[in-house]
Design goal:
- This protein has helices at 6-13, 48-59, 107-116, 143-163, 199-207, 215-218, 230-240, and strands at residues 26-31, 64-70, 80-87, 95-102, 124-125, 131-136, 168-173, 185-188, 192-194, 219-222, 248-256, 262-270, 275-285, 291-293, 303-305, 308-320, 325-326.
- The chain is an alpha+beta fold and 327 residues long.
- It folds into two domains: 6-221, Glutaredoxin; 227-326, no CATH class.
- It has a ten-stranded mixed β-sheet. A five-stranded antiparallel β-sheet has the order 11-12-13-16-17, with helices on one face.
- The longest helix is centred in the middle third of the chain and has 21 residues, at 143-163.
């Protein structure tokens, strides 16, 4: 095993995490106990029909992220949990969840195909849990995810137990990007990404309390937004405080220069049912924060990680949703 640690190196370089959340329309999470191979769906317990399905979907360029998940009971139980998170349309605060309990993992491919085809799907259960925290522990992909992810998910479970919360689950997960920010997590159904988490920052994220500026060190961005636009969303988050997590948001890239050094984007948000605001922002490549770095422990060379800075942003609309008038 290499002595190089991509996570330690990123910390030493002071890399800003923002803009590293990946933007997917759909997350499909299949319960499958470790060990997990570096190529996730070549893992021991993954059936052939699921492996073929994932390859077919990836070849179609649909915006779907497939992940394997597990908890402490996954080796012993005689059923398989399947979670499908679908991004909400328009102004939203994340994803809609559907949960299925399958008699075996071989049925996962059948149910997923039916779901994606818009057909009726069996085995759906009520959503007793309203929050799923995925912690990457995929040591077969990167050693930092095992080194930092495994102990962190243990602490995360203990914090939830201490809070006496029975509506939140913590799952070990396969790779979803950002090895160098281990321990890294996705908080669903919102779809927010975090990294370099510790017990204190995780408790703040979990309870939406404490000093919100801790997010400057751990917030990777919101997966419903294009990565470049995530820096503006963080600015609004810090400005509006924890209430921001209740707002519905949407965003899009309007224009982009050929060299990707300049981007014009738009972000809309609704603080209440009555109003929404639309801002446009000019983003420029940040020559100081953009740096070449090894993105994983197994990387043989550095890659340029481009970061953006806010050059300017301005309000373009404030609309009354009740009567549809611009004000």
């Amino acid at each position: 095993m290499s002595n190089y640690s991509c996570s330690d190196h990123s910390r030493q370089r002071g890399e800003d995490l923002i803009g590293s959340a990946t933007n997917y329309q759909t997350y499909i999470l299949i319960e499958c106990p470790p060990p997990w191979m570096s190529k996730t769906f070549n893992s021991k317990w993954v059936p052939d029909n699921l492996r073929v399905l994932v390859e077919d979907i990836r070849g179609s360029y649909l915006s779907i992220q497939f992940l394997l998940i597990a908890n402490n009971e996954s080796h012993q139980i005689s059923q398989t949990t399947l979670l499908i998170y679908q991004q909400q349309n328009g102004l939203s605060n994340g994803y809609n969840k559907r949960e299925f309990k399958l008699p075996n993992i071989e049925l996962a491919a059948v149910v997923i195909r039916r779901y994606l085809s818009g057909e009726y799907v069996d085995y759906e259960v009520k959503n007793y849990y309203n929050r799923d925290i995925l912690v990457c522990t995929h040591g077969g992909r990167d050693q930092c995810c095992a080194k930092y992810g495994n102990p962190f998910q243990f602490y995360a479970r203990n914090i939830i137990t201490d809070l006496k919360w029975n509506h939140v689950r913590v799952w070990r997960s396969t790779h979803f990007g950002g090895h160098r920010f281990a321990p890294t997590a996705i908080d669903l159904p919102q779809g927010r990404y975090y990294g370099l988490l510790n017990q204190s920052s995780f408790r703040s994220v979990l309870t939406l309390s404490g000093d919100i500026h801790c997010l400057n060190q751990v917030y990777r961005g919101w997966g419903i937004l294009p990565p470049a636009l995530q820096i503006l969303e963080r600015e609004f988050m810090l400005d509006y405080g924890w209430n921001w997590f209740n707002y519905r948001v949407s965003g899009k890239i309007l224009e982009q220069s050929l060299d990707n050094n300049c981007i014009l984007a738009e972000l809309s948000f609704a603080p209440s049912a009555d109003y929404f605001f639309t801002y446009q922002v000019k983003l420029v490549r940040d020559s100081i924060k953009s740096q070449s770095i090894k993105s994983s422990c197994t990387s043989t060379q550095e890659s340029l990680i481009v970061k953006y800075a806010i050059d300017n942003f301005w309000l373009v609309a404030r609309e009354n949703l009740t009567c549809g008038n611009l004000v």
